[in-house]
Amino acid sequence: MASRFRHPLLILAAALAMTAPWMIIWATGNTDSMAPLPTVAVAGFGILGASFMLAWAAEIAEKDVPRAFAIAVLAVLAVAPEYAVDALYAWRAGAGGATAEACAVASTPGVVRACHDANLAVANMTGANRILIGIGWAGIALFSIYRALAHTDRSIEHRDGFLADVVHLDRNISVEIGFLLAATVVAFFVPLNGGIGLVDTAVLVGLYVVYILIAISGEVEEVGEQVGVPAYFHARPRLLRAPTAIALFLYSGFLIYVAVHPFAHGLEVLGQNLGLPPFFMIQWIAPLASESPELIVVVYLVNKARTTAGFNALISSKLNQWTLLIGTLAVVYSLALGQLGTLPFDAKQAAEIWITAAQSLFAIAVLVNFTISGREAIVLLGLFISQVAAEFALIRLLPAARAEELSIVLLDSYAVLYVVLALGLFYQRREAIVEIVSDSRAAIRRATGYYLG
Fold first, then answer.
1. Cα 273–275–276 angle (5° rounding)?
2. pLDDT at 375 over 90
């Protein structure tokens, strides 16, 4: 009797039922009339159900398309809410006339608000990127090691010593790491131009397009043994399996898109009721909410002993955030402005971009040998939490002008620390860097041959 209730179609129906309340509320136009707490509860429950369907879609698709491409699609859909939030602030900045010259004088309330929105777009983007590494990469590594204490996971190597266990990553992600390293190097130069411009868009989006072309040109790999919903559809004909994967991708992606913004806004209001500063909420609480579908998907994969697939999704998400997300901000801003332009930001947001790039550089240095230990994960998590906590203390304890001045010093100090740690690891693992660069070049050559025949 119990097995009947665990039939894959019933499990899929249960996930759909989790999403139904929010879809009904959205379809009837009642999202704005709900109080913050019910909004967070119902939208959050829907996001949880959609996240499971998103993970199943990716696993089903692996039967018919290259795994790297399936993971890339999953990553784009999982972080789509973050794109929506950032695009909203970038649009408001452009529509309000936030140019570098206008923001330097900010003579009218409308321009002041637009310049503030431009800064919020950058703050939300950098917050999301740092959360992805500081909580996502570090937390999933620690969760994987913890789970392997009770369940067999071939990706985990047990070593003697406190937190010495190591997560082994799929060596096929060397191309993703190589492109992420290239995007990180580019990001260090973005603040030097006084904003995010269309040149940045061309370079960063160009990197992502090349990566996707490589992913599509890859071979379809033999899929390992699956269970549950993916296993059920892997046993069905392709004429049923492929449309099911597409439908799950589209439905779950759409629900996440329409649910995450109200979910994040509800969290912001609840946080403000607790006395948290609005800017702090936009940079940290809203991105944490918009990253939740992705983190749920990765926890699901790790819980199925698919740790390497989980990390592949995290790295792919970081790559598309660090390329597409940054690059599209200038496009949205220019469309709203009505002409080609550069999304401006202040000195504080320049420091935010530098520390985000520096954290990314250190995280790449950790992964270049295709492992991450419990100790390395603790360092990533500890640096992230300590910086956020220190900045929060400055905001709460000091006048705004003085807090911002010291925040820039704090951010720059952490950026230097990240870079020093990264360079030390790169030196120790210099042979791994050469291998990753070589793999990336080879992948580009193979893709070029694939498309040119």
1. 105
2. yes
Domains (range + CATH), the chain:
4-452 (1.20.1420.30)
CA distance 63 to 356: 36
Q: Where does residue 298 rank: exposed (0-12), middle (13-18), buried (19+ CB within 10 A)?
A: buried
- Token pair for 25: 């509320």
Q: What is the pLDDT of residues 413-433, one digit of tens each?
A: 999 999 999 999 999 999 999
Residues 6+ apart with CB under 8 A from 232: 8, 9
Report the distance separating Cα 134 and Cα 388, nearest Å.
Answer: 10
The burial of 32, by beta-carbon neighbours within 10 Å (0-12 exposed, 13-18 middle, 19 or more buried), is given as exposed
Using CA atoms, how far apart are residues 348 and 125, in angstroms rounded to an integer? 14
Q: Which two tokens stand for residue 47?
A: 């996001």
| Residue 34: HSE in the Cβ half-sphere, 13 Å Cα cutoff | 21
The pLDDT tens digits of the residues spanning 134-149 come to 998 999 899 888 888 7
Task: Note if the pTM is more than 0.90.
Answer: no
Q: Sign of the C-alpha dihedral, residues 258, 260, 264, 270?
A: positive
Report how far residue 85's alpha carbon sits from residue 371's, in angstroms, rounded to the nearest whole number.
33
Q: Directed axis angle between helix 238-273 and helix 67-78, to 10°?
A: 30
Q: Give the 3-state secondary structure of residue 343.
A: strand
Count how many residues are written for the chain: 453
